[in-house]
Amino acid sequence: MRGATRVVLRPRERVLELYDGARRIASAPAGVGPARVVSDDGNYVFVADTAGGAVLVFRVRPELALVRRYALPDGPYGMAIDNRRHRMFVSQV
């Protein structure tokens, strides 16, 4: 993520939070069993909702919002992004 903006995944609370410096500016539900989060260093973050069997796509700007859900029935777990090649890799449970 650019600048001082950052996201924090709180798996126990099942919430994705957006911070500007030390101040929380937004939050959104992050599925039924979120495990990991990765960013494209731009306007999107991706959450592996392992218990929910999906990858959740959140837009960060102009406000934090869930924009897409990709179903992965075997449960996504690990994720990595190659920003240079515009690819995301997801391992399943």
Strand order of the largest sheet: 4-5-6-7
N-to-C CA distance: 27 Å
Structural class: mainly beta
Strand percentage = over 45%
Radius of gyration based on Cα positions? 12 Å
Low-pLDDT runs of 5+ residues are none
Number of strands: 9
User: What percent of the residues sit in helical stretches (DSSP H or I)?
Assistant: under 10%
Explained architecture:
With 93 residues, the protein is an all-beta fold. It contains no helices and nine strands. The chain has strands at 5-10, 15-20, 23-29, 34-39, 44-49, 54-59, 65-71, 76-82, 87-92. A four-stranded antiparallel sheet has the order 4-5-6-7, with no helix packed on it. Strands 1-2-3 form a three-stranded antiparallel sheet, with no helix packed on it. The chain has a two-stranded antiparallel sheet with strand order 8-9. β4 (34-39) and β5 form a beta hairpin. The mean pLDDT is 92.
Question: What's the quick description here?
Answer:
The chain is mostly beta strands and 93 residues long. 0% of the residues lie in helices and 61% in strands.
